[in-house]
Amino acid sequence: MENSMMLSVNHLCKNYEKFTLSDVSFSLPKGSIMGLIGENGAGKSTTMKIILGMTCSDGGSVSVFGHEGIRAEDREKIGVVFDELPFVQTMFTSHLGKVMKGAYKNWDQKQYEEYLRKFALPDKKELKDFSRGMKMKLSLAVALSHNAKLLILDEPTSGLDPVVRSEILDIFLDFISDGERSVLVSSHITSDLEKVADYITFIHNGRLMLCENKDDILYGYGIAKADQDTIDHLDSELVLKKKKGKYGSEALVKDKEAFLHQYPDILVDNINLDELMLLLCSD
Questions:
Q1: Which of 38, 90, 149, 173 could bridge 77 with an S-S bond, Cβ 3.0-4.6 Å?
Q2: For residue 6, which of 176, 171, 153 has the smallest C-alpha distance?
């Protein structure tokens, strides 16, 4: 089973003065996309940096491509996009292609140039003059142009318009279509993840709140709505979280079918990822 996993994170911990990543575990199968969600400062970027060996953990382990830890040769097979553009800001895109050709054995200059055209990125303009959206597209062009097997992307569609975001989501789906490549992507744009992700991992305040198949969440979970007394007396085995509201109360239901079988007269709405996060994080 382990060989079917592109990436496995096991009981990961990291201690900072004002933040602790605590016991985070998840596995990303080959041929799939996992969406990593959570509020700012939840621990998503810390988790990604530990996976990449950019930050040391204080406990737990990471396995990539079937072996523990990240080796020098593994970096050839991982495409990375982070919030800040990690390239010399006075370069042009053509200069960057030459640098990347020296950095990656499997660099595909033709593919890189195709992405530059697809993303409408100019050559005669220094990188420091690129907009945020242009910088994200350039990082993606690089990540997708050296025959990577695993993409690790931190907010890759941030600052992009809906049309370009849609194109990039299609690129992700095409990337995993051979069943041998995978994507780990964090995003605050949960509607994007609802379109393409196979799995959702939710981290809140450094703790793993949920890691499940996306369709099981969107089609299995629900929000029961009723008066406070009715919600208070629901079977606790059917309810993950309760929330009192100004005009009524809500309950997060994990299995809509089982819930409605027991409570056919209670309204249960479908749920999206934003609503799921809000309910799980509510007091």
A1: 149
A2: 176
Tell me, what's the pLDDT at 281?
86
Q: Are 218 and 226 in contact (CB under 8 A)?
A: no
Work out the angle at residue 177's Cα, subtended by the Cα atoms of residues 172 and 181, and round it to the nearest 5 degrees. Answer: 75
Run means of pLDDT, 10 residues per run, the chain, 283 residues: 80 93 95 95 93 92 91 92 83 93 94 94 91 88 95 89 89 94 95 96 95 96 92 92 83 94 94 93 78
At CA 60, angle to CA 54 and CA 62, rounded to 5?
55
Statement: the pTM of the whole predicted model exceeds 0.85: yes
Where are the alpha helices (H) located in 212-268, listed in sequence order? 214-220, 228-232, 256-262
What pLDDT is recorded for position 158?
82
What tokens does 262 get? 């027991």
User: Any idea where the domains of the chain sit in the sequence?
Assistant: 2-215, 221-281
> Which CATH number is associated with domain 2-215?
3.40.50.300
d(CA 199, CA 123): 37
**To 5 degrees, how large is the angle CA 85–CA 167–CA 34?**
70
